[in-house]
Amino acid sequence: MQSDELIRELIERVAGDVGLIIYTLRPKREFTDEELSAELGIEINDVRKSLFALYELGLAEYRRKRDDETGWMEYYWKINYDKQNEVLRRELLKTRRKLEEKLEMEEASVYYICVNGCIKVNYEEAMEFNFMCPRCGGFLEYFDTSLIVEKVREEIEKIDEMLSNLQ
Ligand SMILES: [Zn+2]
């Protein structure tokens, strides 16, 4: 996956469609949320929400200035396009850590699942239930986690590939 595609996916997830629209606008200079709202014809609250989401990600910054006429605080925004790879790397590493945790957990545990799909329990719980599902009475079968482990490993590999493409 290309980094442009990745960043779009991330922005859409965190800052929504409006965030994506703002990011793809590539504004050349600072702008206020009012200006942007008027230009895009999008509710100012939605614009603000998305801008702050971009800010949380590290992809936007602002400075505040008091308007001489109204006396109100104005936010002057700027999108940090040069932070794109840095943000992507951070998010990919975060996802990688979660996958590693999942991997450890799956590898360390033995699960049993109901043949009818009601529950998934660990060995101790399965013993307590006499290997019978407490909901439907069906058998609790040994659950092979090797497929999950393999899948998670593949995902981690994919992330590593993306990370090396970011350099
Ligand atoms: Zn069951």
TrEMBL record:
Coiled coil: none
Protein name: Transcription factor E
Species assigned in the record: Archaeoglobus veneficus (strain DSM 11195 / SNP6)
Gene name for this UniProt entry: tfe
Residue intervals of the HTH TFE/IIEalpha-type domain: 1-85
Pfam families per the UniProt record, alphabetical: TFIIE_alpha (PF02002)
InterPro entries the record matches: TF_E_archaea (IPR016481), TFE (IPR039997), TFIIE/TFIIEa_HTH (IPR017919), TFIIE_asu (IPR002853), TFIIEa/SarR/Rpc3_HTH_dom (IPR024550), WH-like_DNA-bd_sf (IPR036388), WH_DNA-bd_sf (IPR036390)
GO BP of this protein: regulation of DNA-templated transcription; transcription initiation at RNA polymerase II promoter
Notes on the domains: The winged helix domain is involved in binding to DNA in the preinitiation complex.
